[in-house]
Write a structure and sequence with these properties.
The protein has 257 residues and is of the alpha/beta class. It has one domain: NAD(P)-binding Rossmann-like Domain (Rossmann fold, 3-Layer(aba) Sandwich). Helices cover 47% and strands 14% of the residues. The chain is built from 8 helices and 7 strands, in the order βαβαβαβαβαβαααβ. Strand 5, helix 5 and strand 6 form a beta-alpha-beta unit. It is globular, with a radius of gyration of 18 Å. The two termini are 26 Å apart.
């Protein structure tokens, strides 16, 4: 399938590893001018190097100031942003009863306020040219809270509400807004969560991973490249009628359709 996006410009936040890197790489392979970004600037440059028109930029998007600095540098490098991929590290694991007030403020800042600032800054160009893609790499916690990831679920549900409302308002301008929800994808983040679970339970990491895989109808963890391919499609021209949706890439793990 021709995704129809060569020459488009994309900013992919937190794309030096995991799902962000997989999505950025998939877009770059389609001829998109991708800004790979993250705190590890050298790694961002290394990931972008195989793609002639892509660049890597060091950035910390945990604050609005850091996100706006990244956006300014991204525009200088690849021009106005046509495709915005929102992404970032999740808050610390923990139950709802362990959440403190300062934790809520931090989670809301990183998972909602920063994302809103980026969208607000990129949206005028997208609406003016009547083409744009906004994709949030989120979590199935948007659908139902995930045990021991209370803060992540709280922050991402708030972002989901905002993005759904936004999708309804801008779809007539040729701008789509979607969320891509990973299940258990074999990233460093998942490995760290498995390690935390192993430490808490006294089991081995291997046993935790095997138990996790048994809960997935596909019988395995997903590969980052599989996730990235779905992300690239949602940012494509053929996906112009898909908006306001939360698309799962989870091997059938979630119990609802």
């Amino acid at each position: 399938m021709d995704l129809g996006i060569p020459g488009k410009s994309a900013l992919v936040c937190a794309s030096t590893g995991g799902l962000g890197a997989a999505t950025a790489t998939a877009l770059a392979a389609e001829g998109v001018k991708v800004v790979f970004s993250g705190r590890r600037g050298e790694l961002a440059e290394e990931l972008a190097a195989p793609f002639e028109e892509s660049v890597g930029i060091q950035a910390d998007t945990s604050t609005v100031e850091g996100a706006m600095d990244l956006l300014e540098k991204a525009r200088e490098a690849v021009g106005p942003i046509d495709i915005l991929v929102l992404n970032g590290p999740g808050p610390r694991p923990g139950t709802a009863t362990s959440v403190q007030n300062e934790d809520l403020h931090q989670a809301f800042e990183s998972l909602m306020v920063v994302q809103h600032a980026l969208v607000e800054a990129c949206l005028p160009h997208m609406r003016e040219q009547r083409w744009g893609r906004i994709l949030s790499i989120a979590s199935t916690g948007v659908i139902a809270p995930i045990t021991n990831l209370a803060l992540s679920s709280i922050g991402r549900m708030a972002l989901g509400g905002y993005l759904k409302a936004l999708a309804n308002e801008v779809s007539g301008d040729g701008v789509t807004v979607n969320m891509l929800l990973p299940g258990r994808i074999a990233t460093d983040r998942l490995k760290s969560l498995d390690a935390e679970a192993a430490k808490a339970s006294g089991k081995s990491v291997e046993d935790i991973a095997k138990a996790g895989a048994r809960t997935i109808p596909a019988g395995r963890y997903g590969e980052p490249s599989e996730f990235g391919a779905v992300g690239a499609f949602l940012c494509s021209d053929p996906a112009s009628y898909v908006t306001g949706s939360a698309v799962r890439c989870d091997g059938g793990a979630h119990t609802t359709l």
